[in-house]
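[User] Could I get a sequence and structure tokens?

[Assistant]
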Amino acid sequence: MSMRWMGGILLCSWLVFGQQGSANRQITLDVAVADKSGKPVGGLQQADFTLLDNKQPQRITSFQAVVGGTAAAADPPVEAVLLIDEVNASFMNVASERDSIVKFLGRNGGKLALPTSMVFFSDNGITDSEAATRDGNALIAKLNEREAGLRSIRRSQGFYGAQERLDLGLRKLAEFAEREATKPGRKLVVWISPGWPLLSGVEVDLTEKARQWVFDSIVALSDRLRWARITLYVVDPLGMSDAVGLRTAYYKQFLKPVAKASRAEPGDVGLQVLASQSGGLVLNSSNDVAGEIEKCVADASSFYVLTFDGLPGDGPDEFHAIEVKTGKPGVAARTRAGYYAQPEPAAAR
């Protein structure tokens, strides 16, 4: 049986928001540099970096080296956000991941390396614990005060229940990113979740309107995460029990950025895909969830902030691939995959 997939109605205000930022083309990149063993590489200078926009070298307009979450210049300190997913995991899995979060927060006597906050994703949306703090014990107390409930998105099962979770996840991620964009500085958002359904690979007939919805979602989320300086990480609380199947690797089929609406698939807005394209990590092959969270937060121990002027697009929502290279052998740079450029405003031509 073939089903016609229409998507949700998320984008009614997104495109207006996106156009507001098109006049200012300055792009900020948070760049992690690591050696072959994954250890962060510090001590690099601006001259060590080459930045390519659609394979064309671009001038780096500003440069900062960040150590321990703080830059030498007046850049706000990095914040970590632990986002606990109560929608896409069962009650038992949510309880297990909470135990792992307590273990992470309690390390070093509860003294956290970064200002950290907790966010809860439920059917009611995304809610905060309180302001970011370095007191892990205070966050544990707040976590213990919260009672997790079974998700109520079971009104429809199978394909349609999965679509509801997808719609809710995308909508709330967009709202969260828009709110975070009002705060200065970089945010490491660690989403502890198996992710929402990809909805690709099933027998679904996407309409032209549905593909356009997916593409608009991709563009809007890419813009919002970039403006908010959010690097997104996904830690699968199911660990090795999920890693034995094909599901945890399936998202890799969608890592290539989408340039046209006609090529958009539901899998292109998978949580793991969005994380990878933001410059973050997808960690889904370990039962040490607390250790996986630690790996994500370690990205703030040493990284670099580069800015450059993005190029105008020849048309609306033109994808530009970003590549950052270093002249140092044996090291690799990781940052967001690119951005969607808009045409030059008529008045500026």
In short: Residues 25-68+302-343 form a domain with the Immunoglobulin-like fold (CATH 2.60.40). The radius of gyration is 20 Å. The first helix runs from residue 14 to 20. The CA atoms of residues 18 and 223 lie 7 Å apart.
